[in-house]
Specification:
The structure is a homodimer of 169-residue chains. Chain A is mainly α and 169 residues long. In chain A, 65% of the residues lie in helices and 9% in strands. In chain A, strand 1 (47-52) and strand 2 (60-65) form a beta hairpin. Chain A binds a DNA duplex (28 and 28 nucleotides) through helix 3. Chains A, B: Residues 86-162 form the Transcription regulator PadR C-terminal domain.
Chain lengths: 169, 169
DNA sequence: GCACTCATGTAATCTGTTACATGATTCT
DNA sequence: AGAATCATGTAACAGATTACATGAGTGC
């Protein structure tokens, strides 16, 4: 959140949108996490709230990062790199698929393929729409594309094997 | 946990070891989660505890899955597939790397490369050591290998670009 | 009329981690 | 002597989700 606030003053709603549009594939936050965190950061002097009245909409609470907030963010960048946290229901099911029916297994593979293809399409659309994107942001996008492509290749190999097994019967 | 108990009666300690050795790359659990979960499952009749006295070691609490536990596990396999949860500190740092020093960025890339290479080595060692592994378990291992390879290729491309930039100065 | 976007917030709950406590045995 | 393995468990806390509550405007 502090990272997003480095450039602009944003509301909780804006921050949520930023997450969704950019880093949602490797980090996300819900409103129930964002609003309390903003209040806490305000108390800690990392951000300052400015209420912006709006017509026909609720007031917008714009949060501006303070010098202390910038320091905190830069201190985070200097802190030790943490290992990624992954929790994949899909891979757990594949791991235990010996207890599943073949159609069930095929269903998971096809569902996952659709999901990964959809995110790949989204990545490519973002790449097309924002050609002057920050080069570092672009790197994470390229990572996402490479990752999705690898997954699709893996899924297609496995789905293809299923097709062959099916033929033999 | 129920998945691991489908084949054998296991202790909390054993279950932890199973996680570490097999699915830890896409799912993990700590003792503080496992022990309370086992007691809860016992209360719910999904598992049955059998205390096995041991010499020189604390008693082992072996948990055996019940019919109800098997049903619950199979019901899970029939439940809707959930999206994966990912939280990558590394990718967040890359995303915001315009606020970081070039040496900092290089440090993250190299650290991540070492980390991924280590897990790739572990995967290959597991593959070598367990040639008769369950085919579905093997699929998740192959996924892990493909994933690690893709990441190393991406990291090497980026590290290589850094080298070139460095030369120009 | 319905769904979606904009906009904020709370409360209950859940899930999970970390640290602590205990303690014998085995390996280096 | 010290570290690691085996083995279980609790308590404090952290982090986060989900659902609820409110409400106007916009697009189909």
């Amino acid at each position: 959140m502090l990272g997003f606030l480095m450039d602009d003053a944003l509301s909780g709603y804006d921050i949520k949108a930023k997450f969704e549009l950019s880093v949602s594939n490797f980090y996300n936050a819900s409103f129930g996490a964002i609003y309390p965190a903003l209040r806490k950061m305000e108390q800690d002097g990392l951000v300052e709230k400015k209420v912006v009245p709006q017509e026909g909409k609720p007031n917008k609470n714009l949060y501006q990062i303070t010098d202390s907030g910038r320091e905190t963010f830069l201190a985070y960048l200097n802190s030790p790199l943490e290992a990624a946290l992954v929790r994949s229901d899909f891979l757990i099911r594949v791991f235990f698929a010996r207890y599943a029916a073949p159609e069930q297994f095929r269903g998971w593979m096809e569902e996952e393929r659709i999901r990964v293809q959809a995110s790949l399409d989204t990545f490519r659309e973002i790449k097309r729409r924002y050609p002057s994107m920050d080069p570092f942001e672009a790197k994470t996008l390229e990572f996402g594309i490479a990752n999705a492509q690898m997954q699709i290749e893996w899924l297609d190999r496995e789905i293809d094997l299923l097709g062959k097994d099916g033929m033999e019967k």
